[in-house]
Amino acid sequence: MESGDLLLVEQVEDGVLRLTLNDQTRRNALSDDMMRCLREALDRAASDTDVRVIVLAANGPAFCAGHDLKEITRARQSSDRGRAFFENTMASCSGLMQAIVNNPKPVIAEVGGVATAAGCQLVASCDLAYASPAAHFATPGVHIGLFCSTPMVALSRNVSNKAAMEMLLTGELIDAEQAAGIGLVNRVMSEDELSAYTTGIALTVASKSSMTLETGKKAFYRQLEMPLAEAYEYTSTIMVENLLKRDAEEGINAFIEKRPPQWSDD
């Protein structure tokens, strides 16, 4: 099958897996098929030792338009008015977002277009995000009588309450600079520089010990939900276990000896 016929294009180079959404006719919507493709690719990458970092990108003017509203509308024709389909769609989407957060590999969003509703949720779920000026973001469900409740979960964990509520209550687009200002994306750069910059960040991260990255990513998200004292107790335990790992010993020795570390990833 030609890459142009694929919903999701996968490329691996120098430890970086690039997953490119490629359903331009539907503005890269998170249809059932797209969510399945993404979930399967993420699950494979989680255990693939050739993959150290994952980049999510997209072809076309839209990064991701959220759920496929035509698919949702067709489901209303069923005897249950679409309830079973809606439940399955929300479960699939929630599982996909958690697969990004729980993936042992860092996941970076490269956003060169519009990301709305569940597409904005997709960006917010990634560990890092970089955007071009062409990127715009919105949780526009209120315009169609459907509050963006599930996108709210990822959004509210990345930006302040008032910034999140403004997006959710107005449904209006914000530009890339605004998104960077509220912490939804890390940085904005020109369209010509975006891919190279994101790849550079991915390669920098990929050069680290995969054991260390997995340990840190897991601990970061877990401690966020803990009270302060519990978080310090948990992360202190993680630090002790980390110090006992071979890569921590190698990294510290390499620093003292002023040489590049040689990671064994354990």
Automatic annotation (TrEMBL):
InterPro entries to which the protein is assigned, alphabetical: ClpP/crotonase-like_dom_sf, Enoyl-CoA_hydra/iso, Enoyl-CoA_hydra_C, Mitochondrial_ECH-domain
BP GO terms, sorted: fatty acid metabolic process
Q: Which CDD domains match?
A: crotonase-like
Q: Which GO terms describe its molecular function?
A: hydro-lyase activity
**Entry keyword set:** Fatty acid metabolism, Lipid metabolism, Transit peptide
Output the superkingdom of the source species. Answer: Bacteria
Stored Pfam families: ECH_1
Query: Which Gene3D superfamilies does this chain map to?
Result: 2-enoyl-CoA Hydratase, Chain A, domain 1, Lyase 2-enoyl-coa Hydratase, Chain A, domain 2
Which PANTHER family does the annotation name? Answer: ENOYL-COA HYDRATASE DOMAIN-CONTAINING PROTEIN 3, MITOCHONDRIAL (PTHR43602:SF1), PTHR43602
Q: What does this protein do?
A: May play a role in fatty acid biosynthesis and insulin sensitivity.
Sequence similarity: Belongs to the enoyl-CoA hydratase/isomerase family.
Protein known as:
Enoyl-CoA hydratase domain-containing protein 3, mitochondrial
Q: What is the lineage of its organism?
A: Bacteria, Pseudomonadati, Pseudomonadota, Gammaproteobacteria, Pseudomonadales
